[in-house]
Each structure stands twice: as C-alpha cells, then as structure tokens.
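S.,

Sequence below, as promised.
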Amino acid sequence: MVPFAHRLAEQLTAERAAVTTRLDEEEQREAVFRRLDHLGYRVGQGLVERFSRDRPRFTDTLDMIKFLCKDIWTLVFRKQIDNLKTNHRGVYVLTDHSFRPFARMSMASPSETLARVPPFLWFPCGIIRGALASMGIEATVQAETAELPGASFQIKTITTKS
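The prediction came back faster than expected:
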C-alpha cells in the first residue's frame, strides 16, 4: 500500500508541476504581448506628436482615422491602408491586403501559419491605439488575419459618458 501511495503522490506532484509550467509559459507569453502592445503604443504617440504638429487640428474622428490610414501607416509600413470601413457609430475596420510583416512569412501548413501570426499583430495594434490616444480618442483595437499576407484591424472607439 505504501509504494502505491508514494507513486500516486509523485504522479499528482508531476501533474501539478506540468500545470504550473503551462501557466507560467502562458503568463510569460501574455507579458510579452502586453510589452509589444505598450511599445507600439509609445511609438504611435510619438509619431502623431511629431507628424501632426504642422497640420490643422482634426475636426472629427473620421479625419483622425484617415490621417492614421494615410500618413502614419505610410511612415511605418511604407504603404497606405488598402481599405477603411466604418458603421459611423464608432467602429472602424482597417484592411491591409499586403501587410509588410507578413510579406515573407510561410510555414508548412496554413493552420500553423495562422497560429503563429498573433505576436506580429500586437505591435501594430499598439501603434494604432497610441496614435489615436495622442489625438484624443480612446479605443480598443483587435487584429486578425484570414490569409497571409493580409491583416485586418478593428477599432472600437470608447465614448466617455459625461
């Protein structure tokens, strides 16, 4: 009975260690994603502060989003956003059909490629959030890709209730 209890205790300890290791890896991964987003946020703020200095003040949110799509995106990725859609209620979808960080990316299978894409989207999401924050718009940004090398960024502006 004692060897069985000893073996069972070892198995439970090993299972707990495996779960803890997976949690630690997930926490590290999330920390890296937050760091990438924060770095992008700072870059976006700096770009807007520097390159909107000589421009007239923006009148509405759509003008700010257009500035982001044309000028800021060109500075960072050397091309403009391919498509901008809005529902005129604070949701904007920016589509880049040939997103430069994905231009040379390939893997053995498409599912493997799509699984490895998210880390490359956190920095641009941060750039968008930082640029908009610098212009006075609080927003959430979500990115996704259906097929390479395209990427889509959904911006939801957060309205403050006064």
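The longest helix spans residues 2-51.

Coffee later?
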